[in-house]
Amino acid sequence: MLNVKEGFKIMGTGNDSILDAYLYETNTLLEQLDSIVLAAEEQDTFTQEDINTIFRIMHTIKGSSAMMEYNSIMTIAHRVEDLFSIIRDKSIEIVPEEKRPALFELLFQAIDFFRQEVEHIENGQPLTENIDSLLQKVNTLIQQIQGGDASAEASASPEGDAAPAAGRPGYPFALQIFFDEGCGMENVRALMLVNSIRDLCSDSDFQFSPADVATDPNTAGQIVDSGFMLYFKRKEDRDSAVHAVTGAGSVRTYQAFDAPQEDPKPTEPPQPATAAPVAATPVPSPAPVSKEPATAPPKSPTAKSEPAAHHRESLISVNLSKLDQLAAVVGEIVITESMVTSSPDLKGLKLDAFTKSARQLRKLTDELQDVSMSLRMVPVSGTFQKMHRIVRDMCKKLNKQAKLTLVGEDTEVDKTIVDSISDPIMHIVRNSMDHGIEENVQDRIDAGKDPVGEIVLSARHTGSEVIIEISDDGQGVNYEATLNKAIRSGIASPDADYSHKDILNFLMAPGFSTNTEVTEYSGRGVGMDVVKRNVEDVGGTVTITSEPGKGMTTTLKIPLTMAIMDGMEVSVGSSIFTIPIHNIRQSFRVTDEDLIHDAAGGELFKCMGSFYPVVRMRDRYHLQEGCTQIRDGILIWLEAGELSYCLFVDELLGEQQVVVKPLPSYLSRFNIKQSGIAGCTILGDGNISIILDVANLYTPV
What we know:
Blueprint lengths: L3 H8 L1 H31 L4 H21 L2 H20 L9 H23 L9 H15 L3 H6 L7 H4 L6 E7 L6 H13 L7 E4 L9 H8 L1 E5 L2 H13 L3 E8 L16 E4 L41 H22 L10 H25 E3 L1 H18 L3 E6 L4 E3 H22 L4 H6 L6 E10 L2 E8 L6 H11 L10 H7 L20 H11 L3 E7 L3 E9 L4 E9 L2 E6 L3 E5 L6 E3 L5 E5 L2 E7 H4 L13 E7 L2 E7 L1 E9 L17 E6 L5 E5 L1 H4 L4
Parallel strand pairs: 7-9, 14-23, 18-20
Antiparallel strand pairs: 1-3, 1-4, 2-3, 4-5, 6-8, 9-10, 10-12, 11-12, 13-14, 13-21, 15-19, 16-17, 17-18, 19-20, 22-23
């Protein structure tokens, strides 16, 4: 018989699409689940809509994981689904208030487990085999919330009798199982289940009824009516058997019974001492509980809405690689359109009809660019919302009080960039919690602050950039301690004078950490270094500001998209360069008298009361051609983050929308990124223009 995994191998590329769909769906559901549980923890309760949604999420994860044969994920999802089946049927009031923190913590642990397993799948690693600890926590919580309703559970047994609860002499721990209605061959399925349990314990440790499932096909009807019974000597064996039951196919529901510790009085019917976990209310019904998710009640105007409130038919998920391909094609169209309209064959010709058509083509090309770019734009809310969980977990583990405030979470950025900044934002939030927010609440009160610390995560657009700020109202950076640590680490000189800005830059040096010991969250010196590297990889910059006792702010300036940008074409001799428009402040025609020379022979230009260093493009790249006299060229004032300087070129050729093309990977060995080269573009006449990286073109001495 062909199993699922073998079938995937035969299907070839279909395996990839099925796996991609599974990973996308599961990650989306886990993000939704995380948001629901975080909001519910703040309210210390679940709404009925929350309960129904969590049940449906678990049901979906269970079913899709079973299809993919990811048994560890399927088993945990099944048991959490069982838990919320009980809560759904009996309302959240069945969970005592003192047990609700345990319920929230259990759900967070389950979410972390699912994410860990999904990460294993994405990295091609084997799934976790030992899930007993988490499974036992779920089972224990189910038993605890059902403990006060044992008699009701006993009376709800499928046949209305208490015989299963009494167990068998010597086998006090019973398990009653019902298969899916109409699945057929119930006796064969029961026998397969028995064989699975034999791998877990010996024949002498358990019995089953009907005992002749292997020889009598008529037992199938008996199993349909009364269920299949398993009896165990030890509770541990029954708990282990639950693994086989939850992993078996076509099991609709199961219920565990413990024999009473003392003989019941003759006048009293036997009652189970403890009602163990159930997958659903075990009364046979035409619609099995564990196979169909509950229908949510109609939403009231004030009801809490689900995160995904759009109609399904109005949304379609598209693989990011297809959007990359679309952007590449649009880029080629932009280049081709420029080549056609700038053709040297058209020089000197008066073609009114062609000119009109060319203008219309440019208009349509611009619209096509806008549409193709908008398809890649996603709000940063998904990344921002994840930080709630980090703050919540660190508050508990570090024994701190803090809250996260989100501003501008609907700001949209290119999908590739959103994925790239997720880790940097996480590192900065962790630093704010670990280093910034004070552990002693009294220290905050004495400083006139709110006892609860606040971390503000904000995003906003400024033209072609998005600015993301992570600020806290903690204790800020201790400049003296940071400088001393930098000197001990060998990255600072004890004889040099450093400004506060220089000291803050030490925080982003590789391997630098102000922690004296390594903790779960910091101390290894990889946090801010990762932030700087990842942000610069997408063409962004990182700056830090801090005021001792007031807090710290980290600012990320990131381009909205990396595919198509507005650039200014400049020439130096016969070479053409492109400068991103958003880096240009102003351009000047100057003379030699306007420049000032410093002691080292460098040139400075005074503008608006400040002095800016002058970088000559001809000298920077050792070009053979280009203007040498300052009056013959033009000076361009550039800014990138905190860096500001002037660039001397021959001529401004004009503004143009360009398609950013990455340079061949083998050029990375020459460290071109640090030489101020971000990529290249193809001009309308077919020539190549180097795109300048303003942040790395000039390095202050």
